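Quick one, T. Sequence first:
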Amino acid sequence: MIDNIGAIGGLKPKQERASTSTAGAQPASLQSVGVEIALVKDIRRALRRKYASRSNIERIFQQWDRKHTGAVSAEDICAGLNKIGIRASLEEAMALKASAAKDANGNLNLQEFSDLIFSADENLNVDLSAINAPT
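Structure tokens:
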């Protein structure tokens, strides 16, 4: 395809190819890529069962904050879940993060992380159609 050819005859970088071929298209949402609320709720229940009796949330938070930024990203959640034996995709981790995030920065601080694990609220207050899937 001509659009994928660079000026010197080589392929354009993948990111540039994607933006060229999808010009004007809306990014895919978590809902459109098949993330299911019921599965995300099951993952959260498993996470809560795993840490239900733990009292040192700061230590758990520090273990999950792989970059030591004081915030837990979706990538950190995905890695943390898989490390403790709960299989989760990045998209599912993004939905979990969105359900607990209270501000627009996107990552979870200690309080939000604690709420994700210890809150008694069973609702998953997240709109999957409003969250862009990773590219």
